Amino acid sequence: MDNLQNVLARAVEQRQLPYVVASVADRNGVIFEGAAGEAAPGRKADQDTLFRIFSMTKAVGSAAAAILIDRGKLAPETPVADILPEWNQLKVLEGIKDGKPVMRAPKTRATARHLATHTSGLEYEFWCQGVVDYMEATGHPSVLSGTRDALNYPLMTDPGTRWGYGPSIDWLGMMVEKVDGRRIDQFCREEIFEPLGMKDTCFEPEGKQARLATPYIRGENGAFDAIDISPPAHPEVYGMGHALYSTTPDYMRFCRMVLNGGSLDGQRILGEKAMTLLSTDQMGGLSFAKMLSSSPLTADVDMFPGQPVGHTFGYLQNRTDISGRRRSGSLSWAGVMNTHYWIDPRTGLAAVFMTQSLPFVEQPLMDFYVDFEKAVYAARG
Predict the structure, then answer these.
(1) I need a surface site. Which of 128, 178, 255, 340 has the fewest CB within 10 A?
(2) pLDDT at 2 over 90
(3) What is the mean pLDDT of residues 17-41?
(4) What is the pLDDT of residue 380?
């Protein structure tokens, strides 16, 4: 694993990312930890650095719902509106005419499975021009505003008919709250973070601000400029699509739990039913569709060009081996500030790397990702 540190250092030197903290584990434990660069001016990136993990929150939200499925309190086929009647207010956007949205009722009923697989019809404005047009026409707030009404995005397709990446897991988290009775932050602390010893994973970074990494965006000259971006503080609803802060070691504990079939260090979080949902394709014949950017904050998203890709109840899942990299059936996703992870059950490996940079999945970052992943598998032989 010695070469992995060189890969990290070289990436920072070549400005593929401003700094990085990384970890690799197998089923027996962590086998590599490394870092390079300064997470903030005058402060080196290290294993204590706290990151805004944005959409890496989604896997936690899906795990929360899977816990209730294990307990028989929720089912993948449960209609969203049976738990959250306000879902019935959402309509499908057919277009904008004379400056006003043209809407219709959806033809299918959305379920918890649709939310978990991003086939509910909800899509973010960052990868959907139709949502951009709707927001411009109506003044609808972004999901990152932190208000409850902000989650009432229009549907872009009928549920169950297409992959579309959006605030579905925020709604799934609200289903967990309604069914369980606890607020989602309390549920996650008591059912996931505390049993796993994820002491630095939190919804508010209070008392940890001195450890926060500085977020950057690449300017036209190729240099990284500091920006101000964070999940909304003390929102009306903690969106399980974006709300969490964490460290690389903490998130690795979550990944190791999944890699080990739902338990870690004697603490069982997920049972057999939940692990089946989280580790097998749940898209019902649909496939991941390339996410075309409509925002300067992100590039187009196509993690495995030309390869068939599905989605489990919580993860993107490649359906074929990726040469020199992960095997088929691996689980992965990321946060918009370029925090990334993958879990490879066939090889028994999990890896996490975190920085705070935009645009999301820009080419220099993805070049590093490939180099890092190949180095991990080369080291394992």
Answers:
(1) 178
(2) no
(3) 98
(4) 86
CA distance 210 to 43: 10
DSSP state string for 120-178 = SSB--GGG-HHHHHHHHHH-PPPGGG--SGGG-PPBSS-TTS----STHHHHHHHHHHH
Is residue 345 a contact partner of residue 357, using CB atoms and an 8 Å limit?
no
Choose among 172, 167, 184: nearest CA to 336.
167
Helix (H, G, I), strand (E, B) or coil at 218: strand
The 3-state DSSP class for residue 68 equals: helix
Could you report the per-residue pLDDT of 164-174, keeping only the tens digit for each? 999 999 999 99
What's the whole-number mean pLDDT along residues 209-231? 97
- Measured CA to CA in angstroms, residue 39 lies from 2, 61, 199, 259 at distances of 22, 27, 20, 28
Q: In this prediction, what percent of the chain has a pLDDT beyond 90?
A: 99
* Mean pLDDT of the region 185-189: 98
Strands 357-358 and 216-218: parallel
Among residues 284, 348, 345, 233, the alpha carbon closest in space to that of 116 is found at 284
CATH fold of 2-72+176-380 reads Beta-lactamase (3.40.710)
Average pLDDT over residues 278-296: 96
Active-site residue set: 55, 58, 165
Residue type, 367: D
- Cα 40 to chain centroid distance, Å, stands at 24
